[in-house]
Each structure stands twice: as structure tokens, then as C-alpha cells.
Amino acid sequence: MLSHDSIWRAIDALAERHRLSPSGLARRAGLDPTSFNKSKRQSADGRDRWPSTESISKILEATGSSLDQFMALMRPAAGKGAPADEREQSADIPLIGFAQAGAGGFFDDGGFPAGQGWDVVDFPAVLERRSGIYALEIQGDSMLPLYRDGDILIVDPTAQARRGDRVVVKTCEGEVMAKVLSRQTSSGIELLSLNPDHPNRNFEMSDVEWIARIIWASQ
User: Fold this and answer.
1) Which pairing describes strands 188-193 and 201-204: parallel, antiparallel, or unpaired?
2) Domain 92-217 sits in CATH 3.40.50.1000
3) Are strands 166-171 and 208-217 parallel, antiparallel or unpaired?
4) What is the dihedral of CA 50, 54, 59, 60, to 10 degrees?
5) Which of 119, 150, 148, 141 has the alpha carbon at shortest distance from 41?
6) pLDDT category of residue 128 using cuts at 50, 70 and 90
7) 4-81 has which fold?
8) Which of 171, 188, 170, 191 lies closest to 179, judged by CA?
């Protein structure tokens, strides 16, 4: 029997099967990236909403999935591919786009999520859950070929970043970037670009608001 929960569960499972967030799946299908956000699954008066048949058709086409495969994902135990005890450990974590992350009010002084305007994304059950982690959604092609538009980065501001780690850095001027940490001293950091069309960057530590290590990416 069809239900709101089963349809949305299938959409979430299809996104995860292709290592995408629900918003990344929507982007891949040419839909508004907020189409499958949890906030869009209920109307303002609290009533459950159905996704449109057009949107379902587009995500099936974009992922090369059949209707039968989609319907199989509606079953409660289907889709995620992890044991039930692992699925039960999953939880929502804050999600924000790179463009928004550069604006003020979304992080505290330590680089932890703060303020309003955050969306949520399912935290991968295969990772160890840690306090303070959050997700950033890639927007645009500045991080190709490693990260594509719609990919999700899980970031841990408490993890120690070492040479060779992929990191997200926010400068005091509000610029947010994903790079490879080449060198860090008490006075400055050297960052290697993920995209050969973009230059490497060096900063004095006084110009860096925070640096956080990337612990997982939905590639």
C-alpha cells in the first residue's frame, strides 16, 4: 500500500544508493534542489505532501532505475544496504551550501554550526557519530574533478587536520573553500587546490577563521 512515508523512504534510499543527498538527487534530475528537503514534505498546516509523479519520473531517468526497483525501496527494510542495527544509528545533521557558509551567522567562533537557516541531511551510519559534525553541499564546478555540484561533504571541526588531509577553510573575510592541507604552522597554512584551474592558497593564521577536516564525501 502506498503511503507518504514509503514514497519518501524510497526517494531517500535511491539517493543514498547513488551516494547523493536528497538535494543532490534533485539536482541530478534537473529539479529544484530543495524539492526533496524534509521541510517540503509537509504543508504549512502540517499535512503530509506527496512528491509529484513528474519528479519521480525524472529521478528514475537520472539514476537509470526502474519503477520496480523504486517500489522495492518503499519497503521498510529495503534500500540502504546496511544492517538494521546500523540504520537505526543514523541521524540528521546540519546541512548548508558552500555559498551560504561564507555568510555570517551560520558558525560560532570555533567553526561549529550555529544560528538559523540550516537544513538537515542523514548522517551515514557507517561513520562514527561525533559531536559538532555537519555537512556542506558543493555548489558549482570550482572543485572538479574531485567534488561535483551536489556532492555532500561531512566535516568534523574537532578532528585534527594533518598534512595531506582534505579540509574546509573559512577565512576572516568570509571565503569558504575545500582544499588539501599541504603545511600548517603556528603562523600560517599552505593549501593545495583540488581543481588545477584554481590556484593554491597561502594564509596567515590570523586571516583564518577556522579549519575543519573532511571525513566523508558522497561521491
Assistant:
1) antiparallel
2) no
3) antiparallel
4) 110
5) 119
6) low
7) 434 Repressor (Amino-terminal Domain) (1.10.260)
8) 191
Q: What pLDDT is recorded for position 65?
A: 83
- The total of other beta-carbon atoms located within 10 Å of residue 155's CB is 25
Q: Classify residue 39 by its DSSP letter.
A: G
Between CA 41 and CA 49 the distance in angstroms is 5
Distance between CA 96 and CA 179 in Å, rounded?
Answer: 18
Angstrom distance (rounded) from CA 215 to CA 74: 30
Owner of C-alpha cell 546541512: 95
Map out the domains of the chain as residue ranges: 4-81, 92-217
pLDDT in tens, 132-189: 889 999 888 888 888 888 888 999 988 889 999 999 999 999 888 899 999 999 999 9
Model-wide pTM > 0.85: no
